[in-house]
Amino acid sequence: MEVVEHSQMKRKRTVKVAAAIFFGLLLVVTFFSNTFQQITLPKVKTVTPSFQELTFIIEGEGTLLHQNIVPVYDASGWKVEQIDVEVGDYVEKGQVLIKLDASTAHNALLDEKSRLKQQQLRLEQLQENYKLTAQTGDESTLRNAQIEMESLKLDIEIQERKIRTMQEKNESQATVAAPIDGVVTEVNATLGTSSNPGQPAVQMADLSQGLMWELTVDAELASNLEIGEEVSLYINGNTGQTVQATLEKIEDAGNMNSESGGSAGGEAANSPVSGKQLTFAVYESDLKGGERVGIKWEKKSGRANLTIPKDVVHTDNQGKYVYVVEEKKGPLGNQFTVQKRYVTLGKTDASKQVIQNGLLGEEQVVTESSEPLNEGERVRW
Amino acid sequence: MRILLSTTVLTVMLFVMAIIMLIPLYFTISNSFMTEAEIQFNYSTEGTADEYLHLKWIPDWVSLEQYKTLLFDRMQFLIMFWNSVLLVVPIVFGQAAVAVMAAFALSQFSFVGRDSLFFLYIITMLMPFQVTLVPNYLAMDWLGLLDSRLAIILPGIFSAFGVFLVRQFMIGIPRAYLEAAQMDGAGYWTIFTRIMIPMSRPGIAALTILVFIDYWNMVEQPLIFLHDAYLRPLSIYLAQINEGEFGLAFAAAVLYMLPMLFVFLYAENDLIEGIQLSGVKG
């Protein structure tokens, strides 16, 4: 009887220990369950695609330029004696811009005049000689004297014409005058030296043609714009002063640099090849050109599309995809895994991306994850 | 000789029956050491010529994958396990306390209407859960206890079965003990705690085990009263095992079985004694 009781006691103790171990293990595992989940499962944040309009923001700053610049050349090769205008001066048509030193030309003219005089004196002398020869009456000598006189007369005519040309030239080239009404934008001439005939001595802007501003933006942004749209540009920083402008041209930026300092969406300035150059025309009389202008132009796409944040799209060799969280219901609660979903992309703006195909709008699209994700991986959400 | 022969035949028969009983248990345990993939493969009729499953006795690869997944990867399993514990432990202790006191009164005192009261208890006990389901539900709704553990614990504590079982056991205790104690000046509380409880230990143990097993395995009550998935016990999971994650079912079943096994092994002798003496068969 005692042996049986003893063996019973022993078994009870074993069962007690086993039960204690079992419940202890489960307690420990429960206590650390959150920690295990933290270790094993990446945490993700998600967003549901939403129907929204895209907002295209065209931003940039630059300098207002003149539409039409007229170069004024000085081909005389003479030294510059006086410069009458400065950059920014308003000049009328015909107004003297530069006076040239014509003294060399004047001396040359005087020389030519003296030569003419000499020729005329010589002609008089020949005429005297001819009269004397006519009295002596040698036929051939007379004939020679006549030819000599005729030749000299022709020389005198040539000389007279030369002097006349020189005079005209001296009069016209002594100054450089403005060909149009406008504003001086550049003065290249320097006092005391002659101007380079290949380079304009003065550049003038034709005010009647108005001002313009060029801005290079991302091609994507430009695709939403129409020629002829009116925008307002702000002038000289954010002083509140604005000016109306019209979008005149949209051209491929090509290898043009964004000289105007324009940039939009950050990328545009760095990749002008994919960009478009916008030309805005400004017809405002009290601007001279050269002002700093800028734009902050928000334009709605006008049609609501299914959009997701721009930076959640990934690429692999099969195309563009996003990760979506899929819920698997089970008796042990719901499990969440990430799945790739290939999508067809539409337009983008600075923050949003239109999805044309591949999502329905109810998915949970992963925006952030604590670790890099793989397809089918379980996540915490 | 005849006795020996009949004993041998009986032993063989019992052995065969024991084997038949143990086969599912063996499959549960051996399958719990298979990988999820192996289970999915074994329990698929695809590719078998006769549309029957060809179960394997021995795992291809003994793996603790199922246990690891359940314990470290599925918080819900642990939550459900502790939910079961939180439901069953109060019921077991509460019912034992209530039943022992009620049984004491019903077995040792004579008062008017005692037998009718006991008859009512038996009637209540004989009604299956499904019959009392709707009144139960309405009562719980009225008490505002739906979706709370109390909706299961309270009816569990005040169950008629415990009273019946312990009463049957206590009735076997001669009144002479009670009278002798009274002679020595013991009050009812002293008699109850010093005499009745120690003497009906096997009965109480049997009750504890039976109630524990009964409520550890309950499915209908939590399904009906608990809508919050975070309150539901493990028994529901095992009942829904076909809805997915089949590969984890066997390890879950083994883990589910263990507490009951511990309780049974710990109080096995008391249980047998209790059931025998109270004249109730489980």
UniProtKB/TrEMBL annotation, chain A:
GO terms for cellular component: efflux pump complex. Keywords: Coiled coil. GO terms for molecular function: efflux transmembrane transporter activity. Residues 306-368 form the Multidrug resistance protein MdtA-like C-terminal permuted SH3 domain. Residues 106-169 form a coiled coil. Signal peptide: none annotated. It comes from the Bacteria. Transmembrane segments: none annotated. InterPro entries: BSH_CzcB-like, MdtA-like_C, RND_pump_MFP. Residues 80-206 form the CzcB-like barrel-sandwich hybrid domain. Belongs to the membrane fusion protein (MFP) (TC 8.A.1) family. This is RND transporter.
TrEMBL record, chain B:
Residues 81-267 form the ABC transmembrane type-1 domain. It is found in: Cell membrane. It comes from the Bacteria. It holds the Pfam family BPD_transp_1. InterPro entries: MetI-like, MetI-like_sf. The keyword Transmembrane helix applies. Keywords: Cell membrane, Membrane, Transmembrane, Transmembrane helix, Transport. GO terms for cellular component: plasma membrane. The chain crosses the membrane at residues 7-27, 79-106, 118-138, 150-166, 246-267. One of its GO terms (biological process) is transmembrane transport. It is a multi-pass membrane protein. Belongs to the binding-protein-dependent transport system permease family. PANTHER family: ABC TRANSPORTER PERMEASE PROTEIN MG189-RELATED, ABC TRANSPORTER PERMEASE PROTEIN MG189-RELATED-RELATED. This is Sugar ABC transporter permease. It comes from Paenibacillus montaniterrae.
